[in-house]
Design brief:
heterodimer, A: alpha/beta, seven-stranded mixed β-sheet, two-stranded antiparallel ribbon, 9 strands, B: Serine Threonine Protein Phosphatase 5, Tetratricopeptide repeat, 70% helix
Chain lengths: 226, 114
């Protein structure tokens, strides 16, 4: 028995050590280190799904994960009004266009674009699967500084540990309620946090200018996040 | 052998319990702001303001500093709610804490002072 346990533990250790070829952040995102953007304007998401609400849910969820990465991020609540007034609420127009006006008006070094490609929720099972592409473009050179895409399944189910069939039914009902309203905002935030986890840190991050040799993820990531 | 196994399991348990500390304390400000922007009622504004106060006054994050944009957002909402002087002071505080915000914030201040 002991032998089996030891063998199992060794297998676990070996499998966790097995690595794909490591890509460092400076190799994956060299322009981030060349330009070192400090200020980021969050562009309204480009929604390619039939879920109209996805754009709204996603817009505000980009702010805190980017701040936590050490960047100065303009408040989306305040820029939104300006974008609407300047007819810039449709970010499609700027995805490949000139971004110098965001530099002149806001002082932004870079603009973060997001394209929501899929948004599926399962009310009963409590899961939400979001496919989102993140593109950070320089307002100075127009170049893409950071690019990553994720297909993230978020488990939003409620598990109260209520025992028995009745408990499971109560959980099921609670799950159906929580997958609506602000829960989807939290889901969007977790998706962003997960995908942007390998983004080089900005000036206010603890690893600013120290993360060049840290691992970068693959440009397409698929995961389940709880 | 048993001791080794126990140690291994303990190490794994500890590693999984580690929580990542954040640069800033956000409290419920994100949800409160989102709800206010969606509904725009007096009640949701009051709730958002309570959260802004918390973020401004009780920073337990690693930087011990107010997060980017919070002074500005709160100041902007105060101006809109009629507390212009208080609001403008916060907008100026944003520029002082984050000089890189000056281009945008000074523009907002000019609009509000009109």
């Amino acid at each position: 028995m002991k032998k089996y346990m030891f063998f199992g533990l060794m297998m676990l250790l070996i499998s966790s050590c097995a690595q794909k070829e490591l890509i460092t952040r400076d190799a994956q995102y060299p322009k981030m280190y060349e330009e070192r953007p400090l200020t980021i304007a969050v562009m309204p998401p480009i929604n390619q799904t039939n879920h109209v609400e996805a754009k709204d849910y996603f817009y505000t969820t980009l702010y805190t994960p980017l701040c936590e990465k050490g960047y100065y991020v303009y408040s989306p609540m305040m820029t939104m009004e300006m974008f609407q007034a300047e007819s810039a609420y449709d970010a499609e127009m700027f995805l490949e266009g000139d971004l110098s006006q965001f530099r002149n008006v806001l002082g932004a070094d870079a603009a973060m674009f997001t394209i929501i490609k899929s948004w599926n929720r399962n009310k009963v099972g409590g899961s939400l699967t979001a496919g989102v592409e993140y593109i950070l473009r320089s307002t100075k050179t127009g170049e893409t500084l950071y690019h990553r895409e994720g297909l993230i399944s978020l488990d939003t189910s409620v598990n109260s540990n209520n025992g028995g069939l009745l408990g499971a039914l109560v959980d099921l009902a609670a799950t159906a309620i929580t997958t609506s309203a602000t829960d989807k905002v939290e889901a969007g935030r977790r998706c962003t946090r997960f995908v942007l986890s390998d983004m080089p840190e900005g000036k206010y991050g603890l690893n600013y200018d120290k993360d060049q040799k840290m691992a970068a993820g693959s440009s397409y990531v698929q995961a389940v996040v709880r | 052998m048993k001791k080794l196994l126990f140690l291994g399991v303990c190490m794994m348990a500890l590693a999984s319990c580690q929580t990542q500390q954040t640069l800033y304390s956000w409290y419920d400000s994100e949800d409160a702001t989102y709800t206010y922007t969606k509904r725009g009622t007096e009640e949701t504004l009051a709730k958002a303001m309570v959260q802004y106060e918390k973020v401004l006054k009780s920073q337990k994050g690693l930087r011990k500093a107010v997060p980017p944009g919070v002074n500005a957002e709160y100041g902007y909402l105060l101006c809109k709610a009629g507390k212009k002087e208080e609001g403008l002071a916060l907008l100026r505080a944003e520029m002082k804490t984050y000089p890189e915000s000056e281009a945008f914030i000074s523009r907002i201040i000019k609009q509000l002072e009109k």
